[in-house]
Write a structure and sequence with these properties.
With about 400 residues, the chain is α+β, with helices and mostly antiparallel strands. About 35% of the residues lie in helices and about 15% in strands. The protein starts with a helix and ends with a helix. About 50% of the residues are buried. GO terms for molecular function: hydrolase activity.
């Protein structure tokens, strides 16, 4: 390991934090802090332990009200640090807890990818077959040219649908309505498939429809029975708007008013989605996302290791504008997984975010067996915390 490069990287991260970490006593004084879990096996750097550098930095962000949510660090499947800050529902004074469910945004793409890979293993999906092999209603320019592989890697040119879902008030209307909007676009693909990388929510919605067609099961039912349940993700799910409003254990997302900075409960807005889609919008906890990674990489619960490795290794170089504030050496996209390198270590997982009040990150460090999860019901980007976590883990 190049210690000079590691120290420089760490100094850059601390500079982005804007100040030295707060004193250890302030950690306990911050509102909504949960206790830390027991340390895992093996060497745990002091900077990652309770009261360490990362813990203090998270507390600082929470004290400044730029972070509201939960963080979890786990080594070899054992929680090392667990913290919860802020409010899940400000109007009802319900605090965030470690078992609070948060919207995980585009982390859903990893769930959809696992479903595709499961069906590919069963020879029900051919990764190099075109969209028209499984779905009808698309123009020939899409149906006959865009492949499953290209959809999984954001190289199919399918763009973002921009569907207005305010009139949709059922799961079926959201799924079918979004698919119809994508089918109706006359400008797709936006570039020759396979020649560029451009992030595409539409592409992953199409993948969800392909999962439905290939499995002959409803997409949401398939994900529940073949991804969430086997992984032990009992509470993770695609909750509907009425379910979110009725629950006390689901964090309300808070958008930030661009002029006043006021936190606005997005569940009160008429554009709050009725339900998530294959591209994003399920709800989960930090612990259950850790379980997802363990089920994917630990024991073959979700996929044999060959297929899990196929999904989580980089295949396309991400565009330079994708998460430019994250420290890294290289940035790639696998099959529904973001793949980066830092300090010559590979990190795979996914980020998620929305201006309605969602910001999250799931990181897995395969060589070192660390998992980091951060879930927030603010739209504020807390990338300096992610950078610090990644730097402290990879410099080992």
């Amino acid at each position: 390991m190049n210690s000079q490069r590691s120290m420089a990287s760490r100094r850059a991260v601390l500079a982005m934090l804007g100040a030295a970490p707060v004193a250890a006593g302030a950690v306990l004084a911050a509102p909504g802090v949960a206790g830390a879990g027991a340390a895992g096996q093996g060497h745990i750097p002091k900077e990652l332990r309770p009261g360490g550098e990362y813990d203090k930095a998270v507390a600082q962000f929470a004290a400044e009200d730029t972070f509201s949510g939960t963080v979890l660090l786990a080594h070899r499947g054992k929680p090392v640090l667990e913290r919860a800050y802020g409010m899940a529902d400000k109007a009802k004074s319900i605090p965030n807890r470690m078992d609070t469910l948060f919207s995980v945004g585009s982390i859903c793409k990893a769930f959809t990818s696992v479903a595709v890979m499961q069906l590919a293993r069963q020879d029900k999906i051919d990764l190099h077959a075109t969209v028209g092999t499984y779905l009808d209603g698309f123009r020939a320019e899409v149906a006959d040219t865009v492949t499953v592989h290209q959809l999984l890697t954001h190289t199919g040119g399918m763009g973002d649908h921009g569907a207005d879902s305010r009139a949709w008030d059922s799961v079926e209307e959201v799924f079918e309505g979004t698919l119809d909007v994508i089918r109706g676009r006359q400008d797709l693909p936006e570039f020759t498939p396979g020649t560029e990388w451009r992030y595409s929510n539409s592409g992953f919605h199409i993948l969800g429809a392909i999962v439905r067609a290939a499995s002959n099961e409803d997409y949401y039912k398939y994900i529940r029975e073949h991804v969430f349940d086997p992984a032990g993700m009992e509470r993770t799910g695609f909750y509907t708007r009425p379910q979110v409003l009725a629950a006390d254990d689901i964090a309300h997302p808070y958008a930030t008013h661009p002029q006043t900075g006021e936190r606005i409960d997005s569940t009160t807005r008429d554009d709050f989605p009725f339900v998530g889609t294959p591209a994003g919008g399920a709800f989960s906890t930090a612990e259950e996302l850790m379980k997802f990674i363990r089920a994917l990489h630990e024991d073959g619960t979700l996929l044999p290791s060959a297929f899990a490795d196929l999904a989580t290794n980089g295949k396309a170089v991400q565009g330079p504008d994708q998460r430019p504030d994250l420290v890294r050496q290289n940035s790639f996209y696998g099959y529904g997984f973001e793949v980066t390198t830092l300090n010559d270590r590979r990190i795979c997982g996914h980020s998620g975010g929305s201006s309605i009040g969602v910001s999250c990150m799931l990181d897995f460090h395969p060589a070192l067996d660390w998992v980091s999860v951060s879930l927030s019901n603010y739209s504020d980007r807390y990338w300096p915390l992610v950078n610090l976590e990644r730097t402290l883990i990879t410099q080992q």
